[in-house]
Amino acid sequence: MITIDQDFQQVFSRKPLVVAAPGRVNLIGEHTDYNEGFVLPGAVNKQNYVAVAENGTNTINLRGNRFSGSFSFSLDGIKPVKEWANYILGVIFHMQQRGLEVKGVDMMVDGDVPVGAGMSSSAALCCATGFALNELFGFGLTKMDLAYIGQKTEHVFVGLKSGIMDQFASLHGKAGHVIKLDCQSMEYEYIPFDFPDYKIVLVNSMVTHSLASSEYNVRRLQCEEGVSVLKKYYPEINTLRGIDSKKLLAHREELSEVVYNRCHFVTTENERLLQGCELLKKGDIKGFGVLMYQTHTGLSKEYEVSCKELDFLNGEARKYEAVAGSRMMGGGFGGCTINLVEASGVDHFTEGIKSAYHKEYHKEPEVYVTQIEDGARIIS
Ligand code: GLA
Question: Domain containing 95: what range?
Answer without folding.
Answer: 4-194
